[in-house]
Structure formats: C-alpha cells, structure tokens
Amino acid sequence: MIRNIIRIDEEKCDGCGQCALACAEGAIEVIDGKARLVSETYCDGLGACLGECPQGAITIEGREAAGFDAEAVTAHLSRLASGPVEQERGAAAEAGPLAFGCPGSLSRALHAGEPVLKSAGEPPAEAAPSLLGNWPVQMRLVPVNAAYFEGARLLIAADCVPFAFADFHRQLLDGRTLLVGCPKLDDADFYRAKLAQIFGQNDIQSVDIAYMEVPCCFGLVRLVQLALEDCGKNIPLTLVKIGVRGEVLAHERALPLGLPRRE
Fold first, then answer.
1. Domain range spanning residue 50?
2. Which of 64, 70, 189, 238 has the most CB atoms at less than 10 Å from its CB?
C-alpha cells in the first residue's frame, strides 16, 4: 500500500537522537551513529519527529510501505518497559536495539540529594550528594515536553560554569531543573528555537542563567532573552556571572530588555 512514512537522510543525520525521543511509537533508533527506522509498521506517518531534527534530515514521503500496526507498536513498547537502565545492562536484549536511540539520552527525573552508590572496594569518603534532578541536561538532547519542566525553576548554565564554580550544586542547582550549553561553540539558532519551545509549551516559573565572565559567554543571556521574545512569555530572569577563578562576580535580576538591575 502507498502511504505517508518518514524518510531519514543519513548524510544529514548527526545521530543526536532527538527524533527517537520524539517518537511515541518507538519507531526510530540510533544505530552506528545514525537515526534509522526500526520498522515501517511502527511509523504512523504523522511526523512528530520532524520538528525535533536540528539537521532537517527527516521528511515525510508517500511510498509503498507496510501499514501502520497499532497492536505491533503496543507489543514493541511493552518489550521496552523494563526501562533504560535494565536495557543498558542487557536485561532486555531480546528486544533488540533501544527504540529511544542513545540510552544515555532518555529523559528521566532523578532523586536529587540521594548519595551516589560506590563501586565495590571503593573506600568511604565524605562527599556532598548530587542535587541534579533531571536527565539529560544538554540543551540539544533534552525533550521539549519533559515532565520535569512543568512548574520548574529552570537553571540554564554555560557548560564551563560547573567546572569553575566549586559550590555549583548547593548554591545554584538545588531545587532547579538544569540545562547546559555553550553559546560560542554550539548552534545558537538551534538553542534559541529550542528554548522558545520549552518556554512556550511548559509552565516555567523562573529562569536563572549562570554564565562565565568571558565576553562570549554573555551570548547565553541574549539567547534566553530572544527565546522569551519569540514565545511571548515574561518569565522572571536572574543572571549569575561566574569568574574564571570560581567566584560569583554578580547576581542580578534582568529587565525585559535585558538590562540588569542589581538586587
């Protein structure tokens, strides 16, 4: 039968896995660094994955293909119900490769504050527990409609900040949902569009932006402001500037036009 179905251009695909995360039917996997259609019967042809591909590698085409099979999708998803941790360990090896692409990119809420389990034979150490409450944290990988965005106090941090600021977890991360990215090396236009979607489609209560003192890093602040303009939201902003030696240089509220007002 001829019907609408996705087509993935492997030359354009960079294997980020965003399309796999967006596919509720589990029809897409990342295999050997490229997104691939698991089975034609799992693809409903509606294109929920289209807007999630930053490379424009996915299109919808009308061609001869097996029909969409809702029962097969249900069975397929049930085989994956053991969750990403068990599948990474091989507990569900019979189900084949993960339908969600890279298992490390699967969205999950974490229990912030719980102690990290130690490896066998590792000596005890007094260490503060991690306060990370969500995964993934990289802006390119995070799903737009992740459950942890609802009612979130969002922390958007330049990816150098946690390395420079020793008390990052306690002073900045505690009680917040984290996103990280680099305004200089990453795709700024993609981040702007992604943030606009996150702001527009979720009930974000506040946004803290943690950035380094180097001039290029202030671009992260501008990206957030432009994304808020794009989606028409007025969300309270707080700017935290971190020095390269790890000190907090400024802690400011941002006005709608991006002009800081010191607290």
1. 2-105
2. 238
